[in-house]
């Protein structure tokens, strides 16, 4: 309970007077209608005290209990009971209310029972049945000591009447103390409910006077109210039907049949409980269903909103990769309409390599581990072009999808990869730049140190490039550099690395190439490829170059040393007549060879 509620509970004279007045009116109603042999047959009032006290911290119970004791005493005095006898009714009723409030507060039921059948049953058991048993025992002791002869018939009336009164009013009282009287009145202030309440009262009156098994017929309107108008409607309907039955009993319209046993008359009233409890439980069950349905709808709306608003490409598919849902960002990015995507296998929107990895790597991993991540896939746009996307996928199994439902999250990393590519590649030739080449050669040195391998570094400088660039224009010069890059790629192996350092300088990392005849052949192949006829935009251009090679580990064990020695060998080749190839020799005694210029 919040501080405001604590403050109100402790201070409000108005609240205490209202509680005491409600108790007094209900107690006087029971006394005037049902008092027989000194005990009211059906007692409604204690529900007010139990519901009120159960909402208060124990330290604030003092004044409300005093007001309730005063209301008990006053009701009995106004009902014609002498002072001493009236005071004997106080402990039993207070004991019942204190026990019920303590049990409800201790178990947390004071904060509401509205959406759980289990809590509703516990409310009746802890708030009505157990307290009534305690109150009956206390009253029997006190009245017996006061000279009132107590029979089984009388005790059963007390027990039964208190239970009927509690079942009739306690759920309503707990609802009102939780929601507030004004809120409850707003929830029931409907013409439809008023019409159903009048119908329920009319059916009860007619059934009790004209029909066999009248309590069954009296429950029918209550079931309909529970179904149609919910818990708030059935709470007030139960109370009114209970009051109506009690009024009929007091008027003699509904009387117990003759019986040989004294306790038989008392048990005549038990069917009232059977009239009230099933509609109450039905209403609670329906509230549970409505609450669960609303929670599910809210969860689905939140999921759909999250699904659509997440700044990533999302799609869901089954274990075979067939797409069942897709978010708007995926459709916008890929250029498809939803009907073109749903029911299609996800690999249809991937490039060949990505589709193979999705089938052979992602789906099996999801089936075994339930998660797959870290793979970059290439997605094909409808209008052409590719999206590079980082994949994270999870697989969930439930009773509706025993084979698993897969959620795939694709983060568009195209710009990131493009930026990384530009950071490590020459923008003109698309070859690796100095930064990436240095990383590759450093890695090769580390691998060679661990595994004892060898490789060569070849330095290429184009002959007379400045004259071509100045004489034919920079565009022809750029096209010439691009053509050289393509010829080098066609000539060398896929495991080799070709880089443009800048200007007309190219450098190559030749994997597993050592000194000797193979290196000589490789150099000559490069020179021959460069020497092939070349025409750029209708202009015939002659290409040639000078190549220098250094070998790991013979000529150096690190990137800087190998590059420097390859550069020295290249200058030796250039000084030897151009269009030549030379290997590094310590002391500069290189022997150029190649195609004469």
TrEMBL record:
Every GGDEF domain range: 453-586
UniProt keywords, alphabetically: Membrane, Transmembrane, Transmembrane helix
Cross-referenced PROSITE patterns: GGDEF, PAS
GO MF entry, a single one: catalytic activity
Transmembrane segments: 21-45, 65-85, 123-143, 155-176, 196-217, 229-254, 266-286
Coiled-coil region list: none
Pfam families in the cross-refs: GGDEF, PAS
Domain PAS per the UniProt entry, residue ranges: 299-370
InterPro entries: DGC-Regulatory_Protein, GGDEF_dom, Nucleotide_cyclase, PAS, PAS-like_dom_sf, PAS_fold, Rev_trsase/Diguanyl_cyclase
Gene3D superfamilies documented for this protein: 3.30.70.270, PAS domain
GO biological process terms, semicolon-separated: regulation of DNA-templated transcription
SUPFAM superfamilies (alphabetical): Nucleotide cyclase (SSF55073), PYP-like sensor domain (PAS domain) (SSF55785)
Name used for this protein in its record: Diguanylate cyclase
Native organism: Chitinilyticum piscinae
